[in-house]
TrEMBL record:
Positions of the record's site feature: Interacts with tRNA: 94, 180, 183, 296, 299
Cofactor(s) needed: FMN
Record's protein name: tRNA-dihydrouridine(20/20a) synthase
Pfam families the UniProt entry points to: Dus
Molecular functions per Gene Ontology: flavin adenine dinucleotide binding; FMN binding; tRNA binding; tRNA-dihydrouridine20 synthase activity; tRNA-dihydrouridine20a synthase activity
Keywords assigned by UniProt, alphabetized: Flavoprotein, FMN, NADP, Nucleotide-binding, Oxidoreductase, RNA-binding, tRNA processing, tRNA-binding
UniProt organism field: Chitiniphilus eburneus
Enzyme Commission code: 1.3.1.91
Its job: Catalyzes the synthesis of 5,6-dihydrouridine (D), a modified base found in the D-loop of most tRNAs, via the reduction of the C5-C6 double bond in target uridines. Specifically modifies U20 and U20a in tRNAs.
Lineage, uppermost ranks: Bacteria, Pseudomonadati, Pseudomonadota, Betaproteobacteria, Neisseriales
Annotated ranges, domain DUS-like FMN-binding: 12-316
UniProt family annotation: Belongs to the Dus family. DusA subfamily. Belongs to the dus family.
Gene: dusA
């Protein structure tokens, strides 16, 4: 039972192909309080596709947000109701993804050019559900460099009832850059996000982009209400073991890396029994021993297609055996 009320002081960003339910369950073995987000789900896929595939999660994952991609207020409202019925704590509207594939569907970062439509989408979702409706966005589009652009966008959408904004502190370049390049090339402008909090003190403002360690994240909390971390939380997952103490003041016993894996055993074996290949889960834990003796063996064993074929939990045990001595010495 969590002793700390849910809070978005530390969030793990929605990342396509990364923040699936296997990764989120793994993250919960390391942090009780970080706010988790799903991969982005297109409204059409949710309304007409396999809901179980897109929405299934374990209760332990809460607090958990479903991120939606779409621009039709009615469809978004229907999806928000579905999310609430399934037990999600938040519905987040993606107004930040710059990929051309997303633009062709008229959603993502290009929606920042249509604040009226975003406001209509937010109002429709808020009218449909009682859970939080939030917006994730960029600070500008293409060559728009003025702070006024993002200020006016947030102001207009806030009038529709949105009280939480997650701002990726970079512009979105809609043509000419890949999604990966869009996360790295446009310069970070943290001051724009800090100014949003000063201009809208009643709103919850969460900052995203380039937060590579806890020192940077904690420093941001002097200016905003929370931080959202992406690649660092995924590629160096053991950094999550410090989140509860640093961001939430919950100083429970921190699990060792081995204990975190053992926490997953029941989940993994249940998934294997239902037909899930071990590789679907193993790919998310490859960075667990980053910087530790034996990390290369850990990664090699749990990414080897021959070893993973028809593998069960015993392969995890074998991989742990290659790093266990150092882990136990560290714990001692």
């Amino acid at each position: 039972m969590n002793s700390v009320p849910p809070s978005r002081r530390y969030c793990i960003a929605p990342m396509l192909d990364w923040t699936d339910r296997y990764y989120r369950r793994f993250a919960r073995a390391l942090t009780r309080h970080a706010w988790l987000y799903t991969e982005m789900v297109n409204t059409g896929a949710l309304l007409h596709g396999d809901k179980m595939r897109h929405l299934r999660f374990d209760d332990i994952e809460n607090p958990l947000a479903l991120q939606l991609g779409g621009s039709a207020p009615g469809d978004l409202a229907r999806c928000a109701r579905i999310a609430q019925d399934w037990g999600y704590d938040e519905v987040n509207l993606n107004v930040g993804c710059p990929s051309e594939r997303v633009q062709s569907g008229a959603f993502g970062a290009c929606l920042m050019l249509e604040p009226d439509l975003v406001a209509d989408c937010v109002k429709a979702m808020r009218d449909a559900v009682s859970i939080d409706v939030t917006v994730k966005h960029r600070i500008g589009i293409d060559k728009v460099e003025s702070y006024d652009f993002v200020r006016d966008f947030v102001g207009q959408v806030a009038e529709a009832g949105c009280t939480t904004f997650i701002a990726h502190a970079r512009n979105a370049i809609l043509k000419g850059l890949s999604p990966k390049e869009n996360r790295e090339i446009p310069p970070l402008k943290y001051d724009f996000v800090h100014q949003l909090k000063r201009d809208f003190p009643a709103l919850e403002i969460i900052i995203n982009g380039g937060i590579a360690d806890h020192a940077v994240g904690l420093a941001q909390l002097a200016h905003v209400d929370g931080v959202m971390v992406g690649r660092e939380a995924y590629q160096n997952p053991y950094s999550l073991a410090e989140v509860d103490a640093l961001y939430y003041g919950d100083h429970h016993a921190v699990p060792t890396r081995e204990e975190a894996m053992r926490d997953l055993r029941g989940f993994v074996e249940a998934e294997l029994a239902s037909g899930t290949p071990l590789r679907f889960i193993a790919r998310h834990v490859l960075g667990l021993f980053q910087g530790q003796h034996g990390a290369r063996n850990w990664r090699r064993m749990l990414s080897d297609s021959k070893l993973l074929k028809d593998a069960d939990w015993s392969l995890v045990e074998q991989a742990l055996a290659t790093v266990r001595p150092t882990e136990l010495e560290t714990a001692a």
